[in-house]
Amino acid sequence: xxxxLHKQLLNDYQHDFPLSARPYQDIADELGVxxxxxxxxFTELNTKQLISRIGPVIPPNHIGVSALVAMSVPEQQxxxxxxxxxxxxxxxxxxxxxxxxxxxxxxxxxDAEHLFDVINEIERETSLKALRLPMxxxxxxxxxxxxxxxxx
Amino acid sequence: xxxxxxxxxxxxIQRGLPVCSRPYLEIGLCxxxxxxxxIERLTKLKQQGLIKRLGVIVKHRQLGYRxxxxxxxxxxxxxxxxxxxxxxxxxxxxxxxxxPKQPEWPYNLYCMIHGKDKATVxxxxxxxxxxxxLNCFDKEILFSRQCFKQRGxxxxxxxxxxxxx
Lengths: 152, 165
Prior knowledge:
Chain A is an alpha+beta fold.
């Protein structure tokens, strides 16, 4: 069960996390609780795997380059292939989707040459063809998400 | 402009802000910066738009948002910017972007919808199609099944990492 404090932290601090020496104290002041309560609540959210992290979202292609890659992987090999791909530090998202192209992952690198080297290497290692889909334009990138936590 | 020091800082903070009283001090210790420098650099990167947002990154799935659809359309290049903007106005759309068409994949406009269940997501998609007049374009809906990996973007430099595997 989530407490009211957990829900406030999940929904109200996706943007504009305080950039001050004592950010958790600032949040505590805003919410009328103690810094310790905020630290404990964030630790619980981490332990329960409800948050990935507190951190920055960086728009693609401003720092380094990225590409979405799709592969059509035989069902019985999916877990093994996915594990191989996830092991690359350049891969930051890796999902199974309901489609003939059933494995979708994002590769990021500091430059295009390294990006393509990694994708080529993945093709060699898996003996599967990769569909390369670099980002051309972003209209809207992860500005946070309003969660309905009434039953959480 | 992004300085090398900014990159070092981003590499550290992408792994997550420590949960402790002086988190920016701790980040600074890892990359040889004072707490003040860390805060000033992050403030500047946000103002420059190189950090789109700084805050809590939730795990949708664990919070009950189990249905995640990536919808792809084949739209003419002349209208893609306009459509992308219109699609982005919907609060249930979490991402929207353009990628190149490929011979075996004729889609160029992508959007993502996160919802509690498939029916809700499909319903939201219907609203989107109606409002943005997307009916005439070929599309595919790809719901996610398993998440194998999800973490922040850490921009790897070429080097030992490639020797892997």
